[in-house]
Fold this sequence. Notes:
Blueprint: H1 18-30, H2 48-58, H3 67-72, H4 76-83
Helix pairs in contact: 1-2, 1-4
Amino acid sequence: MTDLPSASAIDVDLDGDSTEVVAAVWAEALGLDTVDPEAGFFDLGATSAMVVDVVRVLRRRWPGVKIVDVFARPTVAQLAAFLGDG
């Protein structure tokens, strides 16, 4: 089993363009250098547990984001467009 960071270990800058922020959070959670904005979160190897951690981190900037939002918008591009600039 791969040791991936928990929400408390995900340390990314939450300021800036929403696409860049969401991509950085996903990359950190997945242990990747970069994430294609059009790639699906689950296609990249994410689990439901990772969604919980990612949402906890994203809520620091977008307090209203919900777990269902990630499932409904499974790419960086889709989720970033939904969240906007917060």
